[in-house]
Amino acid sequence: MMRVLKSQDCAMTAAACRWRKEEEADLASLLAVDHSKIGLFDLAEQLAHVGHWRVDLPDHAVTWSDEVFHIHGVTPDTYVPEIETAIGFYHPDDRDEVRSALASAVRDELPFMFSLRLIRADGELRHVRCRGLTIPGPEGAPIAIIGVFVDVTELQEANFKLRRLAYVDVLTGLANRRQFDETLEREWRRAAREQTALSLIMLDIDRFKSFNDLYGHPAGDDCLGIVAKAVASRLSRPADLAARYGGEEFALILPMTDAAGAETVADAVRAAVAALGIAHTGNSPCGGSVTASLGVSTAYPQSDGSSGAWLGLVADADSMLYEAKRTGRNRAVTSRTLGYRGPALLPDDEEARLAALAIYELAGACRRNDDLDRIARLAAMLTASPVALVSLVGSDELKFVGNHGLEGVEGIGRDISFCAHSILGTEPLVVPDATLDSRFETNPLVTGAMGVRYYAGAPIMSVATGHPLGALCIVDTAPRTETSLSQRALLADLAGMVATLLEDKVTTSLCVSRSAGPTMAIPRPVITRIRDR
User: Fold this and answer.
1) Is-catalytic flag, 441?
2) Which of 252, 279, 405, 421 sits at a 20 to 30 Å CA gap from 216?
3) Which residues, other chains included, contact 277 with Cβ-Cβ below 8 Å and sequence gap of 6+?
4) Helices marked H in 177-258
5) Tens-digit pLDDT profile for residues 359-384
6) Which of 67, 187, 248, 503 is catalytic?
7) 69-73, 94-98, 337-341, 476-480: range with lowest mean pLDDT
């Protein structure tokens, strides 16, 4: 870009000031030369071995040094430089900038500099940098323009390589985390200015640690590269960005894309990864091949000047990604697919799940008892939580069969329960701050007197049928920034203890029914599974 140096520019940074001093020093060297003999001097040696040129203003005669001829790919025998033909060597889009620089130099009598594209006589594109100034005559008016001229193509290429190292992930060829962060902030601000939607997709390769353990890290690196290409292939617009977020996690920034459009892209990306057919025996629940889980979030940024506001978009997409993994993997999850600001969606096998729960009710296992209260108390103590509950999720309501810290409350409606969301997956559900989660921000348990902010619940899975019966959960009125893996594992272990206690109740009732006669209407397949334990 052309830059005219103006003495009145007082808003320069320290780096810009140093640049200006260097410019003035180089140009002062030119002025120190006896310009009547300029053709006899090798200014390329005096000024870092670069070419030099001169334009005499009265007759517009142009003088080039040998180096300038060389840079243009011509010789003094084949070409006589003139102003317009010399400008004609520049890229068509850059020629007006050269004319403007020369005109400004004569008008303002100030030094100038520009870095532009030059097309040599042989058609090769080069990048050149030119610096110049005017020479005053006896009357003070400019009589000539002189300048130094250097080919910076190699420097440009080196800068490009450095930028690639700084902004591109070497393994996958996608944008790296640094470029992702800068791009997301920039697109957030642009969306706020233009009042458009901005969507983000977070993607994680399912059970990738197991892939590395089974096939080795070199194979894992190859897998990352192949998946990266599949992900990038589903982005068709120049403004879209695919990045490696870290490890086996990728991110896609989709400017001017609403929720429906982002969901379409996410479904296409998920299908593209699955279609690769890369064998992964450690991912047998998803067909024994490499698959991906995706979380999708969309925002309409506001021009409120909030620092780091875009980080909320990342947090929401990451939350959706966790839900995609928690609820079965190899799927794309959005707020809509989870049940946006309302009751949780029903599990796919809800009818069979309720039938399994009915067995526990018939066995008397769905009543509150001391053992389940003790497990709830243990969960509260080990996680420093004021409330811990053992819940069973019925068709319309939630029943608390273990309770610590919420005495006097026996249950709540299923439509407002957090545990109804927990039973959608097999891993713990964690809600760090319910006021920031689109599923719960308007929930009466959050906005009302109870003021729930934090929730973590592990599903209680039936030992006999594998269906989720309810959840072992902890609740707090203060948000929590982190729930460690050990805490998640603890909740899962305690939920397993609850499942065992419930199953023991069914087994005991079955034994009693055998001795007293067939009084329980327990389906034969369930009896068989219990007997085979």
Assistant:
1) no
2) 252
3) 289
4) 177-194, 208-215, 217-232
5) 999 988 899 999 999 999 999 999 99
6) 248
7) 337-341
